[in-house]
Amino acid sequence: MRRTLTLAAATAAAALLLPGGPLPVVATGSARATPSLWTAREAAAFWTPERMAAALPVPDPVPVPVPDGVPAPVPDTAADAPTTGAAASDGAATGTPAAAAPPPGAPTANGPAADGRPTPAAPTPAPAAVGTPAAGAAAGTGPAQGVAAPPAPSAAPGSPAAPASPATPVTPVASPTTPGDAAAAPVAPSAPVPPATPTVTPAPAGTPGPAADPLPSPTAPTRAPAGPVVAPATAGVGQDFDGVPAVGRMYVMKGAGAYFCTASVVSSPGRNLVLSAGHCLLGSDTRQVAFVPHYTRAKPRPYGLFPVLRDSAGRSKVWIDQRYKTQGAEKAATLDVAFAAVGPNAAGSELENAVGGNRLLTGSTFTHAKVTLIGHPASAARPRVCVNRTTKFTSTDPKSPGSFLRIDCTGFPGGTSGGPFITRFDDRTRTGDVVGVIGGWKTGGPTADTSYSPYFGAEIRKLYQAAVAGAKGA
Where does this protein have compositionally biased stretches of type Pro residues (predicted)? Predict the structure, then answer.
């Protein structure tokens, strides 16, 4: 059973959840809207705490018919050389060319987005207590860096391949910086020599070090939550917690329904990029998109709302590989990644300056000894955290080919799609290196206790670079 809602069921459920009946249709069948009317104040007025609490996980995507003979994207590995072509702004999945041009005759995906997680019961209005942000340096005790790796997870459906490390060193996207400072210029590294030693922070056992062209480093938030990040006592067992500033909910309107996925901040020169799963932001009717960092039901907007920017045509500044739109969530599951550029909050603060950000790490291994997984289940008042190792899973389903990261973590149902896989999580900054997002195979997995991620290789790095270029001057 896939962890999804159908669009019709989700819309009907949304109507039942709101006291006043169905949500109003903001724009009929189009992602376009007047660019000047989607500021942080407009987003805050639209996404009220009640509407956010009633939002449902993004519904299942409409299957995309793919002509016979069109090959599925070949997932790159650390050994793959970057291919030519650059991804471009998705414009809320309006069909703008992305990382690679679609095959001749391939249709454009304009259907609703998907959350491939099982959908839990509808959110209840009762809030749960949660620590409020406090001034000062980030503090707290999170998952200890020295914890031994847990036992390898059990085999996944589809006969996963044995874990394997790539032949070449990893490529980080950006090194950590301090909030409030300008984005640091990339540090010129030495020539990659496997296994290379990281130029910024030491890599965990079994993970090759970053290679050339490092991307911006993780950044710390300007203020930290009052409570510590508590690591689950048992590897692979998820638990609710008060969250971290750089992870939150991405809200979106589709049709007459309000929906959300999990998303996180990724460090960038413009300090304004958010990372999620591609299926979360796919669809021509995707609009009124806003990111809410560190969301909890008791404290829904501790840092305010950050609206996803629009271009001159009124299209949301979202980057998704074109092949994911034309070939669909199954065949192009290895490309289930999205970046979005956001504007400042109502106080004028840039996102990364306010909450910090994780460094994007590409070209790494499928197998990581310790990954912190964070997601926002729809039925929970607070986010969920879990720590475990990842393994390599290779699908045997010809309809959804490719290799993916796989992690066994309990209790990650609908709403957690887009949640980050974080390595080298730092208890002080509450950030680390992001190596995946919940998505990819079966849009994240058919059960709530095992999650998947596309592999972050050369294609995802190109998509990030296109987003960085497109977000300049935003």
Answer: 205-219
